[in-house]
Design goal:
The protein is α/β, with parallel strands linked by helices. It is built from nine helices and five strands.
Length: 217
């Protein structure tokens, strides 16, 4: 069981304690839900959702942690294990246009709702990384730094990160010159310099500084 595990990476590892407690309460389809991409200047917000079978086993579970603590290659090596072992796995997203229109908080919740709507299974309980979904009737628990402490949430963060990174790599070929494949839309100095040189692209968030100061929306 993944409730008490060694860590091959030398940092704190998410556990299965939250899920195990819910199993004892009679829940079985327990979904971890997390998002990536709230802070970038370009591209979508992407939410990931994962439902594990009860008490997932295997050495691969020891490699799961918050996607921010993993390298690109570590995340990619995890994905086949997640796809093979999860009962259900899905992503949802909101575009930069939607973010500009409704705001980043509402857009984040919309991405999460879309991920849930696409799920092959309907979760009985949601574990979220500190971001509740008040319009969803499914019982839920937002957990501060849940992506660092809860196995299902950490797995969802990996799913979301891998999906969003690939989207930004694809956008790099559509909108060359901005370096999307490298910085993934985050506000690095190089990215900001390219925006100032080229002007914003169609996938930039025009409501975000410094882009909103360069162009009137």
């Amino acid at each position: 069981m993944a409730a008490n595990r060694a860590n091959p990476y030398g940092k704190s590892v998410p556990t299965y304690r939250e899920e195990a407690s819910l199993l004892k309460q009679g829940f079985s389809l327990i979904a971890g839900l997390d998002e990536v991409g709230r802070g970038p200047l370009a591209g979508p917000v992407v939410a990931g959702v994962v439902i594990f079978p009860p008490n997932p086993e295997g050495s691969w579970t020891q490699l799961i942690r918050d996607s921010k603590q993993l390298s690109t290659q570590q995340r990619l090596r995890l994905m086949p294990h997640l796809k093979e072992n999860a009962l259900a796995i899905e992503t949802g997203s909101t575009s930069s246009e939607e973010i500009d229109k409704i705001g980043i908080v509402a857009a984040t919740r919309l991405a999460m709702k879309r991920a849930l709507e696409l799920m092959a299974l309907t979760p009985e309980y949601l574990l979220l990384d500190a971001f509740p979904l008040p319009d969803i009737s499914i019982p839920q628990k937002p957990i501060i730094r849940g992506d660092a402490s809860c196995l299902s949430i950490a797995a969802a963060s990996v799913v979301a990160k891998v999906a969003r990174d690939q989207m930004m790599i694809d956008y790099d070929t559509v909108y060359p010159g901005y370096g999307f494949a490298q910085h993934k839309g985050y506000g690095t100095n190089d990215h900001i310099n390219r925006i100032q040189t080229l002007g914003p692209s169609p996938i930039h968030r025009y409501s975000f500084a410094p882009i909103r100061d360069l162009r009137v929306i």
